[in-house]
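Morning, I've got a small favour to ask if you have a moment. I owe you a coffee for this, so here goes:

…
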Amino acid sequence: MTEECTLELTPGGQARLGGLLTFETSTRLYHEMEKALHAGNQLEQIDLSGVTEADSAGLALLLEWQAITGASLLVSNAPESLIRLAELCEADDFLNLSGRNEA
């Protein structure tokens, strides 16, 4: 059984993701966000501090959400693996992506 990825929408256009942001979870997350946006919710920032793993499908999902919501979408607390993948795919310029703060 695959670990799920949770999507929590908070007031003020913020969302939090937790768990695996991968091929196995991206389609469901896309549909959850689509329903939320059609219901009138806004999306301005995504907090990835709870994401334990991300792959290219997760990156593609973030890029899709960026395209849907506009260039001002902030993606914060990304795991280092996602930042490296975005750089490798030359997608880091398209996402307003920031990493996790080191303590």
